[in-house]
Specification:
Layout: H1 6-40, H2 44-72, H3 74-94, H4 98-112, H5 117-126, H6 132-143, H7 146-160, H8 163-199, H9 214-240, H10 242-251, H11 254-259, H12 262-276, H13 282-303, H14 307-336, H15 341-369, H16 372-405
Length: 406
């Protein structure tokens, strides 16, 4: 039932676990990295290279995590994932030398595949509500505060604790907050699944038109992966280098202040979509999201070093990023339905993470060898290719719906 109290409660609970998951497993790393580098007597570049390698390895596991969520239930996968995430954080905290640290970091990013957005979106769909897409929007709105909360939390803890002690605190958070919520979710989804089987009822509809025809699906799926891979590349490359990028384009120290607009813009896009985007097809939203990223880069190129232009760039980029987080979960559901949703979402996560892991190095390489404006032009062209991929999917879906109605 659409008003079943379990769905909003579960969405709120998952929102909390996503804040803790992203905050402890991802956003805290940038603040703790200098301490790690100093203790292991390594450069910070080496530490971030280790993180990129771990993220790349995690992308290879994402499809498996999606298949397991389909087969065993996302709640069960997330429950064991919470234990694995806590164990990996402890291993990182106890690592005596660089090799064991890198292996623990690898374990941490592998565990993240089983507790972050990919698994959480599947959990929402498996709860069986009639509007899972709307619940996904609510979840991304809550989880959007992960960086806003955990950057200051990590900094405050690190002012009195070592990075190792901070990771031990974070391991406890995963066990005390995330594990009970995921265990409850595992029980609820199992009970509701058994109730549906006993009553002989089928899962409620997604609230959208039927999915694509088989031939259209075979064309749309690789296009969708390409679109998300291109978006992942641009988002990762620009976000990692946003401050030095804007400084190199003439904004100077104001680039740091301008960059702070990104987080609020990202949350604002999710809020606006939650209020006004209920009837908008997710194919259209995907085009809008990719278009905002591209438009932001074009504005940056056209206005630099004008400070208001830099502010407009960051706001547009934040809006596009916020919408991208939503459509990465809702677009596969709209196009292909609930069946095999976890596996498809796993491939989406893999496509985004592979390019996201490589992008910071690629943009740094370009910025070191060509003018910064040329590097931004290349990023804008890549982002524009993503717009074309999603526009092609929108056209395929429109044609498929037209044929099905004839």
């Amino acid at each position: 039932m659409i008003g079943h109290p379990t769905v909003p409660v579960a969405t709120a609970g998952l929102g909390l676990t996503q804040i803790v998951g992203y905050g402890t497993l991802y956003y805290s790393f940038a603040i703790l990295a200098p301490g790690m580098a100093a203790e292991f007597r390594l450069s910070q570049e080496w530490i971030f290279a280790a993180l990129s390698a771990a993220l790349f390895a995690g992308s290879l596991v994402a499809p498996l995590a999606g298949r397991w969520a389909d087969r065993y239930g996302a709640g069960r996968v997330m429950t064991y994932g919470s234990i694995a995430a806590a164990a990996a954080l402890v291993l990182c905290a106890l690592a005596p030398e660089p090799v064991s640290f890198v292996l623990a970091l690898l374990a941490m990013e592998l565990a993240s595949c089983f507790v972050l957005y990919g698994a959480a979106f599947v959990a929402i769909v498996q709860l069986g509500g009639q509007q899972p897409q709307r619940s996904i929007v609510h979840l991304t709105l809550i989880a959007g505060f992960a960086s806003t909360l955990f950057w200051p939390i990590t900094s405050t803890l690190h002012a009195t604790l070592t990075w190792r002690e901070v990771y031990l605190v974070f391991a406890a958070l995963n066990l005390m907050l995330c594990l009970p919520i995921h265990a409850w979710l595992m029980r609820v989804t199992r009970e509701r699944g058994e109730s549906s089987r006993q009553s002989g009822s089928s899962p409620p509809p997604t609230g959208t038109v039927p999915g694509l025809a088989p031939l259209a699906s075979r064309v749309a799926f690789p296009l969708m992966l390409a679109g998300f891979a291109l978006e992942g590349f641009v988002l990762s490359a620009v976000l990692i280098h946003m401050v030095p990028l804007t400084a190199a384009l003439g904004l100077g120290t104001a680039g740091l202040a301008v960059a702070t607009l990104f987080g609020p813009a990202q949350v604002a896009s999710r809020l606006v979509n939650m209020v006004f985007g209920g009837r908008l097809p997710q194919t259209h939203l995907a085009v809008i999201a990719a278009g905002l990223l591209t438009l932001g880069l074009v504005v940056l190129l056209a206005t630099t070093p004008w400070l208001p232009g830099g502010m407009i760039f960051v706001v547009l980029f934040g809006l596009g990023s916020g919408l991208t987080s939503i459509v990465s979960g809702t677009l596969p559901l709209e196009l292909f339905g609930r069946e095999g949703y976890g596996a498809r979402l796993g491939w989406v996560s893999a496509a985004r993470q592979v390019t996201s892991a490589l992008a910071p190095f690629a943009l740094a390489f370009m910025m070191a060898r060509v003018p910064v404006t040329d590097a931004v032009k290349i990023a804008a062209a890549i982002s524009g290719s993503g717009v074309l991929a999603f526009a092609a999917i929108a056209a395929i879906r429109h044609r498929s719906i037209g044929v099905s109605r004839v």
